[in-house]
Hints:
143 residues, 3-stranded antiparallel beta sheet, single chain, alpha+beta, two-stranded antiparallel sheet, Arc Repressor Mutant, subunit A, 17% strand
Amino acid sequence: MTINIVINKKMLYIRCMNELTKAEEQVMKYVWRLEKAFLKDIVEQFPEPKPAYTTISTVVRVLVKKKFLQFETYGKIRQYYATISKDNYFKRHMKEVIGNFFNGSPSKFALFFTNNEDLDLTELENMKHLIEHKIEQLKENND
Length: 143
């Protein structure tokens, strides 16, 4: 794993190369949606006011360096595509969140949501149904 040391005006922190910044995540969301995209296609996805073309170009170059994107070259232009699926990235990211904030316990992570005041009875019932369904699937696979 490669580590970058980033110096912000107020703090020094370490960012792993497999983490995405907010800007990088935004670009990846557009690439995942498009599946394959030229730089102009990515820029077009941004809402107004669009970031500068050069800004997006820089983010894309970083994503290539981090190996989140690869490209095919057509003359002087490049068509980019993701090297990791959105689902796989999300699973890995959630695993890190659970590890860092819930001591690696998915149960503590689920408990966090049950204690969240924003969840109503219907949402909790839906979560319960999804968990019960998953339990049944696992039981069937073990038989």
